[in-house]
Amino acid sequence: MPPELNGIIVVDKPGGISSAGVVARVKGIFEAKKVGHTGTLDPLATGVLICCINRATRLSQFFLKGDKAYEAELVLGTVTDTQDATGTVIERHSLDGISAEQVRETAARFVGTLTQVPPVYSALKHQGTPLYKLARRGAAVEKPARPVRINHLAILDVKLPAVRFSVSCSSGTYVRTLCADMGRELGCGGHLKGLRRTASCGFSIDDAIGLEKLAEYRDRGGLGETVIPMNEALPFMPAAVADDALAKKIQNGMKLAAADFPVSPRVSDQGVFKVIDPRGRLIAVLAESQATGSYNYYCVFSV
User: What is the domain range of residue 38?
Assistant: First the structure.
């Protein structure tokens, strides 16, 4: 039996399959005990889907708040009930008087922090049931608007009714809702036709591998080449190097204080940092404690 692989895979998700479906495929290819993804992509969408394998599933929580980047196609003049091309058309509007310049000016107004109402056809849950299931039963539930951040939005091409754009945004942003909102602002409505995630949490589409290619690596015994080790899996998180004595203390779950670290660790926006042993192996993720000069354990890994 091959040795257990622990780390992350950046999958180039194909269209027409759910994120859960990708996870099932990856689990089968690796014969893994555990696999989990770090941020849902709709079946319509393609691109970067980070999957954590075996022990690395404990790292998935740290990817949930990371920024994402996409390339998308908006179709103006047509509104659907799902805000994307999979839904039923509920409105059609003329594009008379709408110019490429108006599209660019409107898009520019969406850069920054704004509030967004999550779509009623989404994987968010209401009392334990996904919203899309409730909507399909005719019992749609609208969640309250919530803040999201659009870091960058660039119009790549305008060939009405189609508008191609790239966007970098905070976690939790719905690009199809962004399309619907831009269409509403233009007065003609719109929906998302195509979506490709190009980056997530420090990994880009250049790091991604397709499912068929992954299967090829398996068939020639090279799956280990596709796995990003756990110590490299959190590129956005500051690192502290522990000597052997401190590494042993951490692995025994002993209380930690600032004096245990030769250099005061830097922390991420989430208030956490990773600890690596002298051989470069990830041994823990720690968080600042409310008690000054001490740290709490998020997770510890045996090596």
Answer: 7-66+203-232
